[in-house]
Amino acid sequence: MSVLIGYISKQYTPRPAGFEPTYVTEIASVSDCISKRPEGWIEEWRHNDWWVYDKPEIAREVATKLNARDWPVAAYLVHAVEFLPTGEERQLTIETNASPIPKNYYGRLGWDVASKSYSPDFECSPLSCNGMATEVAVNAACLLNSLDEAIAFARRCAREQPEPGNYFVIEVWRELLAA
């Protein structure tokens, strides 16, 4: 089961020069390593316990204030399992006040896998941060295409530790971009 944790403005980030695989057209990871949030967003201190906003309107308001008005808003749903380096899988109880995704205005991009070790926020997405997109099938947004693929990849990352910490599966939705 996945639970909507909230919304955040993320910079639309085209594939960096030299990034493999070459069919990837953008990096839509939850990590800030490549796909950034507006500078100064945290100082607004309007985020929830998952370090995102409860409503897309708050994400847009903060982005506008921080000169990132045109950045799309992403919605994140977390699969309610934490993958530990020991191979254990811990069920999560996720409490949230996030408003439902406006489905006519958002589309699913795929699933990301991200680590948490010392921060309450997601830290690294091995698909983009560690170049593991060359080892598993990803889509044009550098995300996995199914929950099952994401769970298998989270188990692998928890075991192999490309970045230290426990791993999470996050379903990524984004405002539909104008054509």
Q: Which helices and strands appear, and what pairs or packs with what?
A:
Blueprint: E1 2-9, H1 56-65, E2 73-79, E3 81-83, E4 89-91, E5 106-116, H2 126-129, H3 147-160, E6 166-175
Antiparallel strand pairs: 1-2, 2-6, 3-4, 5-6
Strand arrangement, major sheet: 1-2-6-5
Q: What order do the SSEs take from the amino end to the carboxyl end, as H and E?
A: EHEEEEHHE
Overall mean pLDDT score?
A: 94
Report the principal-axis shape: globular
Proportion in helices? 10-25%
Strand elements, count? 6
Distance between the first and last residues' Cα: 32 Å
Q: Number of folding domains?
A: 1
Count the helices. How many? Answer: 3
Largest pleated sheet: 4 strands, antiparallel
Give the low-pLDDT segments: none
What percentage of amino acids are in beta strands? Answer: 15-25%
Pairing-aware structural class of the strands and helices?
A: alpha+beta
> Rg, please?
15 Å
Please provide a written account of the structure:
This protein has a four-stranded antiparallel beta sheet. A two-stranded antiparallel sheet has the order 3-4. It has 179 residues and is α+β, with helices and mostly antiparallel strands. The mean pLDDT is 94. The longest helix has 14 residues, at 147-160. It is 16% helix and 23% strand. It has one domain (2-175).
